[in-house]
Amino acid sequence: MNAAMSFHDTVRARRSYRGFKPDPVPESIIRAVLEDAALAPSNCNTQPWNVHIVSGAKRDQLSAALLKAAAAGQLSPDYSWDDDAFFGAYDDRRRAQGKAYYSSLGITREDREGRAQAGALNLSFFGAPHAAFLFNSVVGDSVRVAGDLGMYGQTFLLSLASHGLGGVPQTVLGFYADTVREVLGISSDLKLLYGISFGFPKLDAPANRDRMPREPVEATVTIHG
């Protein structure tokens, strides 16, 4: 893939990869992706994102700390998450994604150990050599700021795709905000929303073989006028 691919192709090339090659991404390409992401829109041009990239030894240190925190049940989310809050079609889609993921790994619903091991892959960044952590300062209830970080993340992911790379946004990384702050020496004033593991995707990884479907436009959009 090359960086001059059309927007139409870039959007369709982007997907959530959960399996990566260990090869590090050249610093020049990471820099280019970050420069693209910095052009994301934000409320009143506030650019509220504060992004931390881990690679190499620091990436390994953080992964070990996250796995240790998970084993000890030491969750420290800055923002709430409730599986039971989803309802109707939203819950149906969430469950369908989970079923497809575990099925791709050959893990049944009854296999609790297998599901736990699969869940732990999140904290080793699915083997990706790099991970980005998206923090923000608290502004009011932070809803608008979170929207800005969403736009930043999408721009980051699309730039990865345009460079032949892959990434996966991970809400679960935000469940261990204190651990991430401690390992990276980040102030408690900055709140962690989510992370993105990224690198060269391993296309033959079981979890990368299938793509999740999308609803037709008519199911989610109403055009007035």
Structure class: alpha+beta
Beta-strand content estimate: 5-15%
Order of strands across the main sheet? 1-2-4-3
CATH architecture: 3-Layer(aba) Sandwich
Overall pLDDT level: 94
Q: Ends: how far apart?
A: 40 Å
Q: Counting H and I runs of at least 4 residues, what is the number of helices?
A: 8
How are the secondary structure elements laid out?
Elements: H1 7-13, H2 27-37, E1 49-55, H3 56-71, H4 88-104, H5 112-120, E2 130-137, H6 143-162, E3 166-170, H7 177-184, E4 190-199, H8 217-220
Antiparallel strand pairs: 1-2, 2-4, 3-4
Please sum up the structure shown.
The chain is of the alpha+beta class and 225 residues long.
Structure description:
The chain has helices at 7-13, 27-37, 56-71, 88-104, 112-120, 143-162, 177-184, 217-220; strands at residues 49-55, 130-137, 166-170, 190-199. The chain has 225 residues and is an alpha+beta fold. It has a single domain, classed as NADH Oxidase, CATH 3.40.109.10. It has a four-stranded antiparallel beta sheet. Helix 2 packs across helix 6 (143-162). The longest helix has 20 residues, at 143-162. It is globular and about 50 Å long. 29% of the residues are buried. The mean pLDDT is 94.
